[in-house]
Amino acid sequence: MSQTENTNINELVQTATDCALSALSGILPDKNIPEGFDEKLRAELSCKLTEQQERSKTLRKLQQTELEILKEIDRICRKHNLRYYIVGGTLIGAVRHGGFIPWDDDIDISMPREDFDKLCKISAEELSDKYFLQTYKKEKDCYFYYAKVRMEGTYFGEDKFEHMSIHKGIFIDIFPLDYIPQNTAMQKIIFRGFSCLGGFICSKAKTTEFLYKNMSLPFIVTFRLIQCILPKKVFLGMRTILGKLSNAFSKKNLYASLSGFHGYPMEIAPKEWWGDGCDIEFEDVTVRAPSQYHTLLTHMFGDYMQLPPEEERVNHSVEPDKIIFEGCTREDYKPKIKRKRSHRYYGCDYDVYPIEDKE
User: Fold this and answer.
1) CA angle, corner 172, sides to 170 and 174, nearest 5?
2) Most C-beta atoms within 10 A of its C-beta, which of 28, 106, 215, 303?
């Protein structure tokens, strides 16, 4: 930490301590402040401020690293005339803040299915050696329907992946946009099918997502029976087939992000809202946004220009000591723990133990 930063912290600590002591002296009998209290208060404030400053520096460096990945994807997409759009919190940040939402720690983009598939095909040749495009087709333990572009040599220690043999570098998410039928009953069936298959897949993968919330006992018994009998690749195949059926039986005028985090019906929007996209400023780069991004954001988030309450300003919550910006190798991505159960459910956490231990 620089001398200037230390000086700023010391000044803040001293000011806060003086204010606290002044307030206490006004309410304590005979202004009797315990001996040594000011030193303890000063030490505690200094520790908290230093920790907060380090977290802010790590978050900013993480954002800048993700921005590098986005620039690489933007380069490839413009070169090959592929459509992509920043979405979710990334798009809100571009419109509301001109870049990242201050507390946000990820970048999300979406691509129409045909462009998404093409990017996956050309990634081996087009992506710089600094990056790795991650899908369930490339890594055995990988299970998600979307893709991630990760930066080599980095590490982003999400708890749900600590037991898996997958690339764990800093990343951005790429969500495919599939066509979906106009019939609302069919839409619900497709989304519920994806949700159910996602439950089986996450259970097989032993991720940290909760299962069995508000589920009846017959459903839980049936779920456990099917989950025990069928292998993960069957569920992955069924999910792929369901996505292809959604595309095949649609009129090609509605897009759906079937793997999106907001679910039905927010993840469904008319194709013309997305369009060919438009340029928008994000930090120090020009990227692509949906043609009617205001309409799309309002559909998904309502009054997105309104700042959320403090308690809702959350991110991946990865501790700074689990984020590494350089020097990592594939050896560092190997599993660090094992999980005993095949799923997690409300009221009970996973049993975990070091990878070196024997069952």
Assistant:
1) 145
2) 106
